[in-house]
Amino acid sequence: MQIVKPILSEMKLKPTIMKLSDKTISVLKNFSSINQSILFKEGNKLRTISLMKNILAEATISEEFMRDFGIYDLNQFLNGLSLHSSPELDFTNESYVVIREGGSRSKYFFADPNVIVTPPEKEITLPSEDVSFELSTAVLDKLLKAAAVYQLPDVSAVGEAGVVKLVVRDKKNDTSNRHEEVVGETSDEFSFNFKVENIKVLPGTYDVIVSQKLLSRFTSKNQDLTYYIALEPDSTFG
Predict the structure, then answer these.
(1) HEC string of 182-221?
(2) Could you tell me if 104 and 86 are in contact, meaning their C-beta atoms sit under 8 angstroms apart?
(3) Closest of 185, 224, 186 to residue 204, by C-alpha
(4) CA separation (Å) from 199 to 2, 83, 130, 140, 178?
(5) Which residues in the chain belong to E strands, given as ranges?
(6) For residues 122 and 113, is the Cβ–Cβ distance under 8 A?
C-alpha cells in the first residue's frame, strides 16, 4: 500500500520578534505628542489622531507588525525601550510584549482598543486644494522658535501682494509682536489660520496643501509621513 504524504502549502509567517529602527522610534515619539495612546494595526502603517480630532498623522515604516495591539501610554512604552541599548520586542503572547536584551526582560501589557481614540478607517482626502507651498526645515524651525520667543499662539498662511507668507502672531492683538517668512507666490488673497500648538510635525521639508474648507495636508519630502491639520474657523479665502 502506497502512503501518500500530504502536500503542505508554505505559509509566510510574520515574525513575532522584531526591533524598531531609530526612524520608527522618532515617528512614534512624535505621534505620542499628538495622542498619548495608539492602536498598532497589522502591517507597516502607523496612524494616530488627536483627542480633539483636529490633527491626524500617518506614516509607513520599515517594520511590519503581525497583529493589532493597543498601547495606552506610548511615551511610557518608548521610555521603557530606552532602558535597553538595542531591545528586541517579542510579540509571541497576545496580551503583552516582552522587551528583552541579553538577560534583561520587561513585560508590557497591551491596552483595550476601546479606550483608545483612533483615526477613521476611511482614507482622508482634502475637500479642495486651494493653496500650496513648500515648507522647509529651516523656515519651520524659525517660525516655531519665533512663536516660542515672542509667546505667540497663532500661525497663518497669508496671501497678499502676490506672495504667500507664514506669519506667527496673536490674531486677537493688532499690536502683538510677529514674525513672517515668504514661502511662495499667489494671485489670491487669504488668511488660513492655525494654532501653533497644532503644528506637531517632525523636522523636515513638507509640501503643504490647504483647503478653504478648513483642512490642510502636510506631506513630508523626507519620508512616507503625512499630517492632516484643521484650520481655525476664522480663516478666510478670497
Answers:
(1) EEEECCCCEEEEEEHHHCCCCCCCEEEEEECCCEEEEEEC
(2) no
(3) 224
(4) 71, 30, 20, 9, 17
(5) 17-18, 38-40, 43-49, 55-65, 69-71, 88-90, 96-101, 104-109, 131-135, 154-160, 163-169, 179-185, 190-195, 206-211, 215-220, 225-230, 236-237
(6) no
Q: Which three cell numbers, joined as nine digits, stand for 183?
A: 514661502
Phi and psi angles of residue 136, each rounded to the nearest 5 degrees, phi first: -80, 160
Grid coordinates belonging to 69: 495591539
CA distance 120 to 111: 19
Task: Confirm if 99 and 154 have CB atoms less than 8 A apart.
Answer: no
At 170-180, the pLDDT tens digits run: 999 999 999 99
pLDDT in tens, 181-235: 999 999 999 999 999 999 999 999 999 999 999 999 999 999 999 999 999 999 9
pTM > 0.70: yes or no: yes
Which residue type does 15 have? P
Task: Supply the DSSP symbol for 2.
Answer: P
Contact partners, residue 22, CB within 8 Å, separation at least 6: none
Longest dimension (CA), the chain: 97
Determine how many CB atoms are found less than 10 A away from the CB of residue 51. Answer: 11
